[in-house]
Amino acid sequence: MAKETMTSEERLWAAIRLEKPDRVPIAPLMSTPAAATLLGLDSAEVYANGEAQLDAEIKAFDEFGGWDGVIPTPVMADFMRLGFKVRVPGESENVKELQTLEMENLKIEDYDIIAETGWNRFLHDHLALRINDMKPEEVTSVLNDYFALTAKGLAAVRERGAAAIFPVWNEMPFFLFSLARSMVKFTEDLYYRPEQVERALKVAVPEWIKTSIDVCKASGVMIACCVEERAGAFFYPLKVFEHFWWPYTMQIVDAFWSEGIVAWFHLDTCWDKNIPYFKQLPRGSAIIDLDGTTDIFAAKEVLRNHLCIASDVHPTLLSLGKPEEVEAYCKKVIDEVGRDGGLILSTGCTVPGAVKPENFRAMIETGKNYELSKK
């Protein structure tokens, strides 16, 4: 068994700072549907409200022995309604977990509104009202409830001696535009209306930076979540990435880093061709969180001793594999990616709703008990 000489907070930050912790820090990205499965709960009851979601995720933490890094705020259904049409268990037939619908909610003319007023005002005054017929005071109420839930989650995490890996899930502006506009229409805009998109980005990004910094400082968690699923070379050629995403990302990281905040990049889909760009960021300024489609071993060779990597235990492995297969993969990642530090043992995206409890337990116990290979 690995000897523990650090707290969860110390262990997590040792990895982020590219030092060698006493053992690998473990930070599975828990989800409400996974918590329901792990605890044998009914999805509709768990999704009744944000507090029920948080209670389920914390109970899953307790039931499976705890780990180091926790997201204190679940993806609350009412919060998601601010920007999307959603399907929720208990409200929609045959739905077991929260689903967002890909729709053209953001119109071409809305880029000009965003460029004039910013994303937050656009969301509050236009998008939420347009999608779900919400009144401005209802939007404010949902936001207040959401951050109250964050405070409750942070207290529960700290009470258990764990560390928050970031205070809230936070989609980057490029991704927000794509989600709100729909991917097909947004792609058309990138090619046929680039000036409109960029005018909106130039206003939305600084605003997003300020909001993210404010949330980190208010929560005391100096890691900011940066979710991006659509800017990588899986979808777009590098010239699009270089024009519409990378310059703004360097701006984001520089602003965070100047405030002592580290960026947690949650990068879904394959980023193999984009990984070398991250070498341009300041050493230790970010965590690169991969979902199992990017080659984590190649990424380590590029980013070795420069940025921390959060692995990548694949949802398919957790839902369809066997405990011994999960154990073998975790050991391989710890040995090959974590040999010289800079590794957080995590999941490929979030823990899947179809997770097998025995597989999840195998991941947690392997991380806690496996000593780094001496080879």
Q: Structural class, from helix and strand content? A: alpha/beta
Number of helices: 17
Distance N terminus to C terminus?
Answer: 18 Å
The CATH topology label is TIM Barrel
* Principal-axis shape: globular
The biggest beta sheet is recorded as:
5 strands, parallel
> What value does the Rg take, in angstroms?
20 Å
Can you list the strand order of the major beta sheet? 5-6-7-8-9
Order of helices and strands: HHHHEHEEHHHEHHHEHHEEHEHHEH
Whole-number tally of structural domains: 1
Task: Output mean pLDDT.
Answer: 96
CATH class: Alpha Beta
Strand elements, count: 9
CATH architecture tag: Alpha-Beta Barrel
Low-confidence stretches: none
β-sheet strand percentage: 5-15%
Describe this structure in words.
The chain has about 375 residues and is α/β, with parallel strands linked by helices. Helices cover about 50% and strands about 10% of the residues. The two termini are about 20 Å apart. The chain has one domain (about 10-370): TIM Barrel (Alpha-Beta Barrel), CATH 3.20.20.210. A five-stranded parallel beta sheet has the order 5-6-7-8-9, sandwiched between helices. α16 (about 325-335) packs parallel to α17 (about 355-370). The radius of gyration is 20 Å and the shape is globular.
